[in-house]
Design brief:
By secondary structure, the chain is of the alpha/beta class. It folds into 2 domains: 222 residues, Rossmann fold, CATH 3.40.50; 145 residues, CobW-like, C-terminal domain (Hypothetical Protein Yjia, Chain: A,domain 2). 31% of the residues lie in helices and 23% in strands. It is built from 11 helices and 14 strands. An 8-stranded mixed beta sheet has the order 4-3-2-5-1-6-7-8, sandwiched between helices. The chain has a 6-stranded antiparallel beta sheet with strand order 9-10-14-11-12-13, sandwiched between helices. Strand 7, helix 6 and strand 8 form a beta-alpha-beta unit. Helix 2 crosses helix 3.
């Protein structure tokens, strides 16, 4: 029988350690493995294996290429397989900026018969999360790169860790005799998480973690929860200090007007994401992803309406279901579905700005430049 593996991710190291410690205490015989990547840009890492009693092994590992992918493939997977015969549960204590999806899919691809992913927990510091989700600094500037040349941003990684997880944990990370976390900050963090990942359970310091089941998680299903074509986007709602606004239309966007509005839209909220289409690219689904003012636009593949009907059978059922929910007689599954989350959002302003970017009846694309071409066409060519 395969050994269950729990991935514990999170930028906040003390919170992550608190969750790992709790799992080790609650599951006798469990082992935790952690790779310290502080020196990964120099081609090495420190591997530590521990149990509830403390450290059992430590080793410096040299890598030909200093990156997270190499660390997972060349050291983490073999070590988990080695330890699988010695523990009823394996816990992977992921380093700060490691995104759990990368590790989950690597384990599924290389060791699915021996290891099963039981949970993906993202541990968060309730005091820091509402602040860090607004921070637009590159990881390299805050000393948390996952490789040489890592261009990701702190807030970008944090929201991906939150949105991919199956459990969100808010442990008590302040040791006595320091004061406890401010209840208002904890409440704000829970509120924010309820908007970013409304279907994911949030576990506080005095609450039980969900039980580890016999069946493993399907990484394809985990990916479908966050991938643009099938993402479980949050509904429109307003709570005490956080709001989520949805803009949903079916008509095409004018490429120039939408490009000109992109920077303004990126700073209208803390977090925004979704899928959209441009009048000059009617066959391509485009993904919008923005956090802390940093926006990314990517080609997410064809709309199903642009494919021959025979090709639909080659598409995953979850993708076909998502297309059916978006279907309109005029445009098929082509849709503008963007979601904005933040404080004190001006719904009317966001809607008015986006509505002004839509093509008007009878409007022609003749003579219009495509400012997205340098971004989208370059990525397609690489």
């Amino acid at each position: 029988m395969s050994v269950p593996v729990v991935l514990v991710a999170g930028l906040h190291g003390p919170a992550r350690t608190a969750v790992v410690d709790r799992l080790l205490r609650e599951r006798p015989g469990a082992l935790a493995i952690h790779h310290d990547l502080c020196s990964i840009t120099a081609g090495s890492l420190l591997r530590v294996v521990r149990d509830a009693g403390g450290e059992r092994e430590q080793a410096v590992v040299r890598l030909a290429h200093g990156c997270v992918t190499c660390a997972v493939r060349l050291d983490l997977v073999p070590e988990l397989l080695r330890l699988a015969g010695h523990a009823p549960l394996l816990i992977v204590d992921l380093w700060d900026s490691v995104e759990p999806r990368t590790v989950a899919e690597a384990l599924d691809a290389e060791a699915a018969d021996e290891l099963r992913i039981a949970q993906v927990i993202t541990a968060l510091d309730a005091e820091l999360t509402p602040v860090d989700v607004c921070r637009g600094e590159p990881l390299a500037e805050v000393g948390k790169p996952g490789a040489a040349g890592d261009r990701r941003y702190l807030a970008e990684v944090l929201v991906r860790q939150i949105e991919y997880a199956t459990v969100l944990a808010l442990p008590e990370v302040l040791p006595a005799p320091l004061p406890e976390a401010d209840p208002e900050n904890v409440a704000l963090c829970r509120e924010l998480l309820g908007h970013l990942a409304p279907l994911t359970p949030v576990v506080g310091p005095d609450e039980r973690l969900p039980a580890i089941g016999e069946a493993g998680l399907c990484t394809f299903e985990l990916a479908a929860r966050v991938d643009p074509a099938t993402a479980q986007l949050p509904p429109e709602t307003a709570t005490g200090e956080v709001e989520t606004v949805i803009w949903r239309r079916t008509g095409p966007l004018h490429p120039e007007r939408f490009f000109d509005a992109a920077d303004t839209l990126a700073i209208e909220s803390v977090r925004s994401r979704g899928r959209f289409w441009l009048a000059n690219r009617p066959d391509r689904m485009l993904a919008w992803d923005a956090v802390a003012g940093v926006v990314t636009v990517e080609d997410a593949g064809p709309w199903l309406a642009a494919l021959p009907e025979a090709a639909w059978e080659l598409v995953a059922p979850v993708r076909r279901t998502a297309a059916t929910l978006d279907w309109s007689a005029e445009h098929g599954d082509r849709v503008q579905h963007l979601v904005f989350t933040g404080a004190e959002l001006d719904r009317d302003r966001i809607h008015a700005l986006l509505d002004s970017c839509l093509m008007t009846p009878g409007e022609s694309l003749a003579g219009i430049d495509d400012p997205f071409a340098p971004i989208l066409d370059l990525k397609e060519a690489v």
